[in-house]
Design goal:
By secondary structure, the chain is of the alpha/beta class. The protein folds into three domains: 26-72, no CATH class; 77-337, Mur-like, catalytic domain (UDP-N-acetylmuramoyl-L-alanine:D-glutamate ligase), CATH 3.40.1190; 352-490, Mur ligase, C-terminal domain (Protein-Tyrosine Phosphatase, Chain A, Alpha-Beta Complex), CATH 3.90.190.20. The chain is 37% helix and 20% strand. It is built from 16 helices and 17 strands. The chain has helices at residues 2-5, 14-53, 62-70, 74-81, 95-108, 123-133, 154-161, 176-179, 182-194, 209-212, 313-328, 334-337, 369-380, 427-437, 450-459, 473-485; strands at residues 85-90, 113-115, 144-148, 165-168, 201-205, 221-227, 254-260, 263-267, 280-287, 293-299, 302-308, 352-356, 359-365, 386-391, 417-423, 444-446, 467-471. It has a nine-stranded mixed β-sheet, sandwiched between helices. The protein is globular.
Amino acid sequence: MHKLANSGRHKTPARTRNRTRNRNGRRQAVTAERVRFALALAAGKGTGAVTRLLRIGGGTSLPGAVARRIDPLVLRKITAASSARTAVILGSNGKTTTCRMLAALTKAAGISVAQNRAGSNLIQGVTSLAIREASLRRPIDAQLMLLEVDEAAVRRVAPEVAPEMILVTNIFRDQLDRFGELYSVARGLEAAIEALPAQASAVLNGDDPLVASFAPDAAARRVYYGLRTESAGTDVPEHAADTIRCVRCQHDLTFHRVYVSHLGDYECPRCGSKRPDLDIAVTEVYASPDGGAIVTAETPVGIVQINVPLPGLHNVYNAAAALAGAFALGALEPATVHNALAGLRPAFGRLEEIKANGRLAVLSFVKNPTSYNTTLRMILQRPGRKHVLAAHSNTPVDGEDFAWLWDVDIEELVPDLASLVVSGTRAEEVAMRMKYAGAGVADMRVIPGRQAALDAALARIPPDEPLYILAGYTPMREFRRIMQRRGWVPPFWAE
């Protein structure tokens, strides 16, 4: 005993040493993760502050990119720590306006909202919003995170934010060299819906045959919206319509009513597939004195009437989508609906009216046949001759293939043309399309540079006649930056 007692200290068993080592390793890993997260959050917030201070951006995208380089899980960590509900808005057209309408409806119902209002809808833009709203000491304060998400980005964004609701506005041909054809886009959106849990909601445009067909076996609740009225629309789809064949059997669809492009009341005479029953159905649309529309809709909480201050039937669809989204979130309050959109103004570049050095410029973002044709019809409804500046470029975000210009009804515009300037990196191609539409070559000016084109176009119009600017994404942002430097518009992120 004496020998044993003096032979040294009692040795810790190997199993205990391993447990201790593992615990220490886990603590160190957790500490490293916390430090990484803190650095990512600080770097993101700092980047946002610097870009706004130097006026080189609104901190809508770069902060997220910087933070993700430091901690790729920063968005997932912020959303997991927050009690805020998350809703994702997807689709080819109408995402930004639908988001703004849904934000107005939910705020009217007393729900606080955080949203990527400036439309920065890739993974870095969504991350930037989360970083702006969160801190190390508190999660996101808002009750709802309302996210506009690019169709190509949803596969990355959805798993990180775990949405409670996904809303799909429509699917049209858009940037085919980036997204692929319609069914490629559809598969990506459908996969996001299939991943939703049973307690979540999929809000779908029932008037779009492709969107309405999404994920029939998904666990999530489905909410369909659309139009059911004879006070608007036509009997046949326009020639540039996309989904005109049955999604199931590819037979030509029969349309009982068409409202925008291929959106409407449809049925397949071969297999019987048809528009689903609508949960949110617009039944009446009347013009309002402010140029918008008074919309009546049947909803599960009763008949509601809403004043939509933005012109065009496409904005009636956006309002219907917002009503359906509010219902899915439990925020559709009939008592607050009517004037909830009263303060809504067009998002930047959406028929945005700008005072430009004593002239009026109307800036319109057009990116595919449907958005272009819809915008042209809105312009043609306005009185007077049409002075037009058309600009398109072939950057990666604009798309390189401009064959879709031949599906735009430019021929309807030409008889009313008073002056025409074309610009952008694809100015010559736009000029050729205008020429074949019947625009006079002698009166057309081709000026690739955006600033020179803007100045030339403004110089050609009388003081009392507006300039209509039809621009793809990159030229639209370039024109707006020029206007911002001149003091004509605030920064897009400040609106």
